[in-house]
Amino acid sequence: MAAKPHHIHHHLLLLLLFLLTTTSISAAPTGPIKTIVVLVMENRSFDHMLGWMKRLNPSINGVDGSESNPISAPKVPPRVHFGDGAHYVDPDPGHSFQAIREQVFGPGNDTGLDPAPMDGFAQQAYDQGGTEMAMDVMNGFRPEMVAVYEALVGEFAVCDRWFASVPSSTQPNRMFVHSGTSHGATSNNPSMLANGYPQRTIFENIHDEGLSFGIYYQDLPAVLFYRNLRKLKFINKFHAYDHTFKDHAANGNLPNYAVIEQHYLDSKNKPANDDHPSHDVYQGQLFIKEVYETLRSSPQWNETLLVITYDEHGGFFDHVSTPTKGVPSPDGIVGPDPFLFEFDRLGVRVPSILVSPWIKKGTVVHGPNGVPFLTSEFEHSSIPATVKKLFNLSSPYLTNRDAWAGTFEGVLQRRTEPRTDCPVQLPMPVKIRQGEANEEAKLSEFQQELMQLAAALNGDHLLTGLYERITKHMTVREGIAYMENSVKRFFEAGFSAKRMGVDEEQIVKMRPSLTTRTSPSIDHP
């Protein structure tokens, strides 16, 4: 069947945006923002974290308690209403591709429904984890329970229509943040996680146009899932957060594009601060407070934008319908069996906050308002799309998706000078979890993915039995030690190769650490 004329027009416009974007000779920020800091938290929906902020600002598209989901379960009313009693969550709710389809479209799994009914969260959670999990996903935090967010939402901008890029789990969505595609991934692909995803990223566009970027990591830099970032030429872009972030900020040395990564594994000495269940949201709030206060005291504050978002909703309820129409595939790659997903709809809405002295107090950003396309939405590809605009990058858009995604530079253009009344400190959050981290717990799915990356960096990923060891036997305590050693070996080998004069386009390929300690070889990208 022939495409309708307006569809042809839409696709032609996307093609023009994707290709005809090379009018500038070199990049230079076009406005006051010279430093963009990106922090991606884990696995919480907008309503779960920020929905009750509507009590403080009625213009936020949040919740009032009338929202509900049907449920069929013994001794449970036929409808579960959304409450404000969120607390420590363990175990982790469902957020696989199939689980999300059930949550968004209900038990019928009819993906053709428009708008999406968003009425399957309670039932899917009950089917997976019983009544307690159903109640967990149907509750959100009162503003005072997430006091850091309460302050940031009141002082800066909250985006109440920002969606995950893919209706799936962590890694596919994190891929979109810096590259506008997951290269066809809709779930954990051990081979791709080990070999690295090949797509071009915003990091390369920034680097190639003479601007700077840096990764401030705590456990392991998950951006190394992008294969190209493993090249020797980028090895000095990686910094241990605890040793460098505050120093770089205090001395005005933060790069143009800074990505901050969290503690992804939960230990007694270094609690996880990524908000991924079963981690304590209190630790995530402390971490964001620290990042904000570090930036606020930096001489670069007046030229800084901090973007806080979440990779995906983690199985928690959200009442805003997931966009199912007019979403372009990034690159034409179709996802694997059994779903053969065409990347033509988005994931569930997630919390997103924009922080800068150039943002008016109490701003609520409802959406891109039909720009650049009538169907455009804020989603993770909005980050590279906005970076391209703010930094005047001459390179083409990365994919059709970031060419389509809404951009948020407008929120920074409503003032003629930076604010001087931004708080220097944020309030202390409320401790939620009782007790300490369980270091003997088995790894979560996300942590297993990170461990597969650690194995690739360490040269162990081809060893027989390692995948089973990671997925079935490795504890958090063992994982922390293994990850720390892997990162240390990889970077030591990389710096050694650079000193030897190895071509910087190449990638260090380690020999297995579990069998030998011999020298690394060099792998061509």
The order of strands across the largest sheet is 7-6-8-1-9-10-4-11
Largest sheet report? 8 strands, mixed
What is the correct CATH architecture of the largest domain? 3-Layer(aba) Sandwich
Q: CATH-wise, what's the superfamily of the largest domain?
A: Alkaline Phosphatase, subunit A
Quick one: how many beta strands?
14
Q: What's the CATH topology label of the largest domain?
A: Alkaline Phosphatase, subunit A
Classified by CATH, the class of the largest domain is Alpha Beta
Number of domains: 3
**Structural class per helix/strand content?**
alpha/beta
Strand % is 5-15%
Treating each run of at least 4 consecutive H or I residues as one helix, how many helices?
Answer: 15
Task: Report on this structure.
The protein has 525 residues and is of the alpha/beta class. The protein folds into three domains: 28-49 and 143-412, Alkaline Phosphatase, subunit A (3-Layer(aba) Sandwich); 68-137, no CATH class; 445-523, no CATH class. It has 15 helices and 14 strands. The chain has helices spanning 5-19, 46-50, 97-105, 121-137, 147-155, 170-179, 190-195, 202-208, 241-250, 281-296, 382-390, 400-404, 445-458, 466-473, 476-499, and strands at 35-41, 68-70, 79-81, 157-159, 162-163, 213-217, 238-240, 257-260, 304-310, 352-355, 363-365, 378-379, 507-509, 521-523. The strands form four sheets. Strands 7-6-8-1-9-10-4-11 form an eight-stranded mixed β-sheet. Strands 2-3 form a two-stranded antiparallel sheet. Helix 3 (97-105) crosses helix 4 (121-137). It is globular. 51% of the residues are buried.
